[in-house]
Amino acid sequence: MIKDKPVILIVDDHPENIELLEAYLVPQGYEIVKATNGEEALGKLSGNQIDLVLLDVLLPGMDGFEVTRRIRQDNTHRLLPIILVTILRETEDRVKGIEAGCDDFISTPVDKVELLARVRSLLKVKAYNDLKSNYRRELESEVTRRTEELKQALGNLQQEISERKRAEDELKEALEKLRSLSAYVDSMYMVDRDCTYLFMNEGHLKRFGLLMEEVIGKRYDQFHSEEDARHFTEAVHEVCETGNPRTKEHKSERDGRFYLRTFTPIIGRNVDGKISQAAVISKDITNIKVSEKKLKDTLDSLKRALNTIIQVMVSTVETRDPYTAGHQLRSADLACTIATEMGLSQDKIDGIRMAGSIHDIGKLSTPAEILSKPTKLSELEFSLIKEHARKGYEILKDVESPWPLAEIIGQHHERVDGSGYPRNLKGEEICIEARILAVADVVESMASHRPYRPALGINAALDEIEKNSGTLYDNTVADVCLRLFREKGFQLTVI
Fold this sequence. Notes:
The protein is an alpha/beta fold. 55% of the residues lie in helices and 13% in strands.
């Protein structure tokens, strides 16, 4: 941007001095900016395009020498002409001004002719320096731009060469693999992006009773249903777009058998640079599917049998301890609800339900008179009761199960601070299923009637969980349990 007039900043704390300098300079075509102290002068520099500074040395506060040093500290103003206006004539004062960074001096009272001559001289030097700096910047900018363009062009060329070579190598490798694989897989064929057949091996031709000349050049949808063709086309387009293989199970419309169908991109590209071909390999997995179903049926049968055994165990425990009838199932129900709220897998939830349903199985070894004692238990009697967790573990440790039932039951009286029993486990040493069951067990026990005391009520049970969250009970489990009752209206199941 070209300015109409050079701008001169006059800094002086005496208005009459500023007026005098202004009277000399304005008629010569200079624009004046004024400041009465150092701080104001520095502020004016940052807000205006100043071409020269006339600076009084004897300013209040920050003197002219310090103002000069401050100006020179800003790289933007390293070439800005500064004339010190001073009554000081000592050599050491002049040296001090030069060391601070000034360009010239004018003694007061100011001579008009001398002032104008020094101003014009310094402004010419500044104009030359500005021109030189602008030229240097433009030259450096042009060199930088040309260098970057050259680097970019070389980079693009190298990348294009590399991509072409890689594409050629990939195509050769893919075609070689296709030829070698086609003789060994159940069936293989190749299609383009429009799902037109380009190649088909003998296995696929025999499977469908076709001849090569009957299929090559024809589309997939000419041999298959509309829905199957739609899914097939989506798969081909996906692998061509992403370059990633895709595998999915497929039931044949013709023979009803199951196949594992893998779509693999072949690196042949269209003019737009996109992958244009895909190989499809099919493997007959019917026998595997049949075996999987048999295995699932067997597991389901085992689970049903295990569930029956569990129910027998539940009935056995509650026959010996009728006062806690339903306690195990209610605890299991609450524990499963907590686990579901926490987002545990269905398999873990099923394990919690099984373990919760028989978590007191160890009481089979506890004398019946202790279990049904209507008064407070002695220390010895309570120690016998506490043995039920360990006994439960012993009973179940050798039972084959999809879940760690023995560990869950053996740990359901452990506490996160290590104060529980029988092994004084702490924190993460206790499995998550047992930490959940521990909270459910306490809530149900306190809320229900016992031979030695009436029911304490659900509020007392929840207060206990809240009070000891993080010490006795897992923080997350406790928070979820409290939220279920207090915010979501959960109620203990009536068994």
